[in-house]
Amino acid sequence: MLLNLFLSIILVSGIFAVSHKKFLAILASVLALPMLVAIWISYLVAKAPLVFLIGEVCGILFFALVSVIILSFIFKEREITQELIYGAVVVYLFLGLMWGFIYLLIETVQPGSFSLASAHIDDLRNVFFYYSFVTLTTLGYGDITPLTNAARSYSLLEAIIGQIYLTVLVARLVGMHISQSMEKKNE
Predict the structure, then answer these.
(1) Torsion, CA 58, CA 13, CA 21, CA 54, rounded to 10
(2) Domain span holding position 117
(3) Which of 58, 85, 142, 161 is the most exposed place for a label (fewest CB within 10 A)?
Protein backbone atom coordinates (compact mmCIF):
# COMPACT_ATOMS: atom_id res chain seq x y z
CA MET A 1 0.00 0.00 0.00
CA LEU A 2 2.93 2.31 0.71
CA LEU A 3 4.22 1.86 -2.86
CA ASN A 4 0.76 2.73 -4.17
CA LEU A 5 0.73 5.87 -2.07
CA PHE A 6 4.19 6.87 -3.33
CA LEU A 7 3.19 6.21 -6.94
CA SER A 8 0.09 8.36 -6.48
CA ILE A 9 2.19 11.19 -5.03
CA ILE A 10 4.67 10.84 -7.90
CA LEU A 11 1.83 11.07 -10.44
CA VAL A 12 0.38 14.20 -8.88
CA SER A 13 3.86 15.74 -8.58
CA GLY A 14 4.57 14.91 -12.22
CA ILE A 15 1.38 16.67 -13.29
CA PHE A 16 2.35 19.67 -11.20
CA ALA A 17 5.86 19.66 -12.74
CA VAL A 18 4.45 20.07 -16.25
CA SER A 19 1.63 22.43 -15.29
CA HIS A 20 3.40 25.50 -16.73
CA LYS A 21 1.64 24.71 -20.00
CA LYS A 22 -2.07 23.94 -19.85
CA PHE A 23 -2.01 21.42 -22.70
CA LEU A 24 0.79 19.41 -21.10
CA ALA A 25 -0.94 19.45 -17.71
CA ILE A 26 -4.14 18.14 -19.29
CA LEU A 27 -2.27 15.47 -21.25
CA ALA A 28 -0.36 14.36 -18.14
CA SER A 29 -3.62 14.26 -16.16
CA VAL A 30 -5.33 12.17 -18.85
CA LEU A 31 -2.43 9.68 -18.71
CA ALA A 32 -2.20 9.66 -14.92
CA LEU A 33 -5.89 9.09 -14.23
CA PRO A 34 -6.14 5.52 -15.65
CA MET A 35 -2.94 4.66 -13.86
CA LEU A 36 -4.30 5.98 -10.56
CA VAL A 37 -7.48 3.97 -11.08
CA ALA A 38 -5.45 0.84 -11.84
CA ILE A 39 -3.31 1.38 -8.74
CA TRP A 40 -6.22 1.74 -6.33
CA ILE A 41 -8.91 -0.47 -7.90
CA SER A 42 -7.21 -3.62 -6.66
CA TYR A 43 -8.49 -2.75 -3.17
CA LEU A 44 -12.07 -2.82 -4.47
CA VAL A 45 -12.07 -5.45 -7.23
CA ALA A 46 -10.17 -8.73 -7.19
CA LYS A 47 -9.40 -8.95 -10.91
CA ALA A 48 -9.68 -6.24 -13.56
CA PRO A 49 -7.11 -7.21 -16.21
CA LEU A 50 -8.19 -4.64 -18.79
CA VAL A 51 -8.00 -1.82 -16.23
CA PHE A 52 -4.53 -2.94 -15.17
CA LEU A 53 -3.37 -3.22 -18.80
CA ILE A 54 -4.64 0.28 -19.62
CA GLY A 55 -3.05 1.57 -16.41
CA GLU A 56 0.32 0.04 -17.36
CA VAL A 57 0.26 1.58 -20.84
CA CYS A 58 -0.78 4.97 -19.46
CA GLY A 59 1.95 4.70 -16.82
CA ILE A 60 4.58 4.14 -19.49
CA LEU A 61 3.31 7.08 -21.53
CA PHE A 62 3.03 9.33 -18.46
CA PHE A 63 6.60 8.71 -17.31
CA ALA A 64 7.89 9.10 -20.88
CA LEU A 65 6.03 12.40 -21.34
CA VAL A 66 7.15 13.93 -18.06
CA SER A 67 10.74 12.73 -18.62
CA VAL A 68 10.87 14.35 -22.07
CA ILE A 69 9.48 17.61 -20.70
CA ILE A 70 12.00 17.70 -17.85
CA LEU A 71 14.84 16.73 -20.20
CA SER A 72 13.93 19.58 -22.54
CA PHE A 73 14.16 21.93 -19.56
CA ILE A 74 17.56 20.49 -18.61
CA PHE A 75 19.01 20.90 -22.09
CA LYS A 76 17.62 24.44 -22.55
CA GLU A 77 19.17 25.74 -19.34
CA ARG A 78 22.49 27.56 -19.57
CA GLU A 79 23.26 27.67 -15.86
CA ILE A 80 23.68 24.84 -13.38
CA THR A 81 21.17 25.22 -10.55
CA GLN A 82 19.80 22.94 -7.86
CA GLU A 83 16.59 22.73 -9.87
CA LEU A 84 18.55 21.44 -12.86
CA ILE A 85 20.32 18.77 -10.77
CA TYR A 86 17.03 17.69 -9.16
CA GLY A 87 15.42 17.49 -12.60
CA ALA A 88 18.22 15.25 -13.86
CA VAL A 89 17.80 12.92 -10.89
CA VAL A 90 14.02 12.83 -11.32
CA VAL A 91 14.36 11.87 -14.99
CA TYR A 92 16.71 9.01 -14.07
CA LEU A 93 14.24 7.74 -11.47
CA PHE A 94 11.32 8.17 -13.88
CA LEU A 95 13.21 6.12 -16.46
CA GLY A 96 13.47 3.31 -13.91
CA LEU A 97 9.74 3.49 -13.14
CA MET A 98 8.81 3.67 -16.81
CA TRP A 99 10.88 0.59 -17.65
CA GLY A 100 9.36 -1.21 -14.66
CA PHE A 101 5.93 -0.68 -16.22
CA ILE A 102 7.28 -1.81 -19.60
CA TYR A 103 8.46 -5.11 -18.07
CA LEU A 104 5.14 -5.51 -16.26
CA LEU A 105 3.36 -4.98 -19.59
CA ILE A 106 5.59 -7.53 -21.32
CA GLU A 107 4.89 -10.09 -18.59
CA THR A 108 1.15 -9.30 -18.69
CA VAL A 109 0.91 -9.72 -22.46
CA GLN A 110 3.25 -12.72 -22.63
CA PRO A 111 3.38 -14.55 -19.27
CA GLY A 112 6.66 -16.35 -18.65
CA SER A 113 8.78 -13.68 -20.34
CA PHE A 114 10.96 -13.53 -17.23
CA SER A 115 12.35 -16.21 -14.98
CA LEU A 116 11.31 -15.14 -11.48
CA ALA A 117 12.02 -16.66 -8.10
CA SER A 118 8.78 -18.12 -6.73
CA ALA A 119 8.91 -15.76 -3.72
CA HIS A 120 8.59 -12.77 -6.08
CA ILE A 121 5.42 -13.78 -7.88
CA ASP A 122 3.01 -12.21 -5.35
CA ASP A 123 3.67 -8.59 -6.36
CA LEU A 124 4.95 -8.31 -9.91
CA ARG A 125 5.00 -4.50 -9.96
CA ASN A 126 7.55 -4.39 -7.13
CA VAL A 127 9.55 -7.16 -8.79
CA PHE A 128 9.75 -5.30 -12.09
CA PHE A 129 10.59 -1.97 -10.46
CA TYR A 130 13.46 -3.75 -8.73
CA TYR A 131 14.50 -5.44 -11.98
CA SER A 132 14.29 -2.16 -13.85
CA PHE A 133 16.58 -0.27 -11.50
CA VAL A 134 19.03 -3.19 -11.38
CA THR A 135 19.07 -3.15 -15.20
CA LEU A 136 19.20 0.66 -15.51
CA THR A 137 22.27 0.80 -13.31
CA THR A 138 23.71 -2.30 -15.06
CA LEU A 139 24.15 -3.91 -11.65
CA GLY A 140 22.54 -7.17 -12.78
CA TYR A 141 22.16 -9.48 -9.76
CA GLY A 142 20.85 -12.24 -12.02
CA ASP A 143 17.90 -13.26 -9.84
CA ILE A 144 15.48 -12.27 -12.58
CA THR A 145 16.28 -13.36 -16.11
CA PRO A 146 14.59 -12.25 -19.33
CA LEU A 147 13.58 -15.32 -21.33
CA THR A 148 11.80 -14.07 -24.45
CA ASN A 149 13.25 -11.97 -27.24
CA ALA A 150 11.08 -8.98 -26.25
CA ALA A 151 12.14 -9.19 -22.61
CA ARG A 152 15.83 -9.51 -23.52
CA SER A 153 15.67 -6.71 -26.09
CA TYR A 154 13.98 -4.26 -23.74
CA SER A 155 16.36 -5.16 -20.93
CA LEU A 156 19.32 -4.50 -23.19
CA LEU A 157 17.80 -1.23 -24.41
CA GLU A 158 17.22 -0.04 -20.85
CA ALA A 159 20.81 -0.80 -19.85
CA ILE A 160 22.14 1.12 -22.86
CA ILE A 161 19.81 4.07 -22.27
CA GLY A 162 20.81 4.19 -18.61
CA GLN A 163 24.49 4.39 -19.46
CA ILE A 164 24.04 6.89 -22.30
CA TYR A 165 21.83 9.07 -20.11
CA LEU A 166 24.44 9.26 -17.39
CA THR A 167 27.30 9.83 -19.81
CA VAL A 168 25.59 12.57 -21.80
CA LEU A 169 24.15 14.25 -18.73
CA VAL A 170 27.43 14.28 -16.80
CA ALA A 171 29.26 15.60 -19.88
CA ARG A 172 26.65 18.35 -20.28
CA LEU A 173 26.77 19.36 -16.62
CA VAL A 174 30.58 19.35 -16.53
CA GLY A 175 30.70 21.41 -19.73
CA MET A 176 28.22 23.90 -18.33
CA HIS A 177 30.15 24.13 -15.08
CA ILE A 178 33.43 24.80 -16.91
CA SER A 179 31.73 27.43 -19.05
CA GLN A 180 30.24 29.14 -15.99
CA SER A 181 33.58 29.06 -14.21
CA MET A 182 35.34 30.64 -17.20
CA GLU A 183 32.69 33.38 -17.47
CA LYS A 184 33.02 34.21 -13.75
CA LYS A 185 36.80 34.20 -14.04
CA ASN A 186 36.72 36.65 -16.97
CA GLU A 187 34.44 39.10 -15.12
Answers:
(1) 10
(2) 2-186
(3) 142
